[in-house]
Amino acid sequence: MSGDTPEPGHRPLPEDSMPTGGVNAPVPVAAEATPAVDPRLIVRQEGLKGYLIEFKRRLTSGELGSAPVVVALVVIWAVFGSLNSSFLSAQNLSNLSQQIVGTGMIALGVVFVLLLGEIDLSVGSVSGLCAAIFAVMNVTHGVNQWVALLSAVAGGALVGLVQGLFFAKVGVPAFVVTLAGNLGWNGLMLQILGASGTVNLSGKDIVSRLYSTIYGQQIAAYGLAAAGVVLFLGSSLLDTRRRRAAGVPYRTLTDVLVRTAALAVVGFLVAYTLNQYKGLPLALLVFVVFVVVLEFVLRRTPYGRKVFALGGNIEGARRAGINVDWVRITVFMICSTMAAIGGLFLAAQIQSASQTSGGGNLLMNAIAAAVIGGTSLFGGRGSTWSALLGALVIGSIQSGMNIQGLSNAIQFMITGAVLLAAVVIDSLARRTQKSAGRA
């Protein structure tokens, strides 16, 4: 029969390879991925119940955000506060807010590189190099402090440009480029410092003043908190209006007000604590401004969307017309520039640039701060607020253990354990997202 005769060039499948339901039976397919639902739509439809639905969805899909680090910070403060009441004193917390700025600035740059799924192992040496450039130019050679400051920051940007070119254009892995840079820039720092090996800052220069200045008027801290709340409320309402006009999901007015109230509580509590000691440290203010501005760059500009696109799917980004090489180079420039700024704050903290600048565990602390704060090592997920939260966690651990008189060995082990826990959480969250079809 013609129906039983196979066509030329075709071979009939064995019976045991046919679908069990016959030729017309549906072929089994993979389980459907969990559909992405905008949280604004859930909250608007369900009200208060929507928050619970969205929270449960985030947990089950691995979208933990900053929740783990916030919980960790609360636990750390509770433990050290119970062991020694001075840990939660206004003086210690105010000092802590200044001490985390140097490492936090470096971690801000690391966040950008991690968003690409890459790593920069040279940030410690770059911070020491740029601190040495400023100190030698301003103190040793008497160059104007502003010129010395701009030269140091420009030096950091130049380092990032060189490393970015090797990575993006030559194709050398970022790990190798920055590992070589870690050695090379450290050697250049030693060469710049010269035979003495140490250059002490005057204490009256712009870098020292940026670190040590504290605004004692209470209106400064409270004013900053109020300005932050107003700025957040205004931007949220503007975003809601824009999204509503575009016909896409938006946050309800209640949702916006609840978030604004939560920010107000945190902001004014921080302001109150700072005012109980000396007031608002200028270094903390500068750090927060950098966090907010760079977060705006990442979330609200085409450049930021390109960074996330590369971290999520580099081939897809390339096919979408994104200049991959340019984004990579600029990201490494941002990272090294922030390392330079962080190095200047660290030099101001100890009032010198020396052969040990940028050494020790600075590199690990900067990378750990970004990862512990919630930026993924796998790229495509993170925030500049990760740098602030992560630096606060690491700084709190170090401060608490110093108060308890624990050795550096114990501090290193505990910090390493916290870093490992953060990476484990990140890995598990990514695995959960994959299983939910969201990664």
From TrEMBL:
Indicate whether Nucleus appears among the record's keywords.
no
Q: List localization entries.
A: Cell membrane
Keywords for the protein's UniProt record, in alphabetical order: Cell inner membrane, Cell membrane, Membrane, Sugar transport, Transmembrane, Transmembrane helix, Transport
Which residue ranges does the record annotate as region Disordered?
1-25
Q: Which Pfam families match?
A: BPD_transp_2
Highest taxon of source: Bacteria
Tell me how this protein sits in the membrane.
Multi-pass membrane protein
Its annotated function is as follows: Part of the binding-protein-dependent transport system for D-xylose. Probably responsible for the translocation of the substrate across the membrane.
Q: What is this protein called?
A: Xylose transport system permease protein XylH
